[in-house]
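Q: For a teaching handout, I want to show students what a protein-ligand complex looks like in token form. Below are the inputs, and the small molecule is NAP. Please produce the holo structure.
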Amino acid sequence: MSIDGRVALITGGSRGIGRAIALRLARDGVKIAVNYRTNEDAAKFVVSAVKETGGEAMAVCADVAQSAAVDDMVKQVLDSWGGIDILVNNAGIIHDSLLMRMTEDVWDDVVNTNLKGTYNCTKASLRHMVRQRWGRIISVVSVVGLEGNPGQSNYAASKAGIIAFSRSIAKEVASRNITVNAVAPGYISTEIVADLSPEFKELIMSRIPQNRFGTVEDIANMVGYLASEEAGYITGEVIRVDGGIEL
Ligand code: NAP
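A: Here is the structure, written as tokens, with NAP included.
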């Protein structure tokens, strides 16, 4: 039993964690639709990397916060490959601010991309999974969505919302052989973490028992496992991949 030949749509698959997930699933023989919003070159780079190893991939542009754009993107994948078996809701943004200073735009931006984007992509992909009675929906959330973090109330709320959403959808579609799970990374070495101040990085490191930031592969490996046949009895779960961090 393998997922060779299945089709995955990875939102925000062009950079960071999403790119690592794309490369990992491609290694398992999965055809990869690499979603991006603005950076077409980065998405094309991932497509080329997959093709160089003999895999199949295409870049698909859509702002996940826009339902019409998501519907068009899903149609593009279905027209090309006839289905979507694995959806990875990875696209996400941060825009940190203490609540007292947080504007409505900043709140809306983060919640619409992270939470509404997950709703848009899941709803658009689910119909096909239900019909074929097999599916994997995996959302990349954050330990911040489990524990909260000062200055990140919008981000934490969006990620906590995705967790509750996943657990609910897991119950709705369990009988159709579709699993719905979330992976909660701690601090992972990506551009988001590179932009943190040295003092803040040091503070975070002091809270990670493994004494290192995670790698994008640490997250991709867990997503790869949850997408596999072997993980078929795991649903409605949130799995932390965080080196033991306590925020
Ligand atoms: P990243 O390097 O900033 O990459 C973000 C990706 O999302 C890019 O491919 C970007 O595409 C895409 N994206 C952003 N907004 C989008 C939108 N509206 N529609 C479609 N695509 C959009 O981020 P990352 O650090 O890899 O994070 C990936 C996920 O992991 C996020 O959900 C994040 O919250 C979560 N996470 C990250 C960490 C961490 O330490 N890095 C920790 C916990 C959780 P464009 O470049 O084309 O805009």
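A: Two things your students might notice: Strands lie at 7-10, 31-36, 57-61, 86-89, 135-140, 178-185, 238-241. The CA atoms of residues 70 and 121 lie 6 Å apart.
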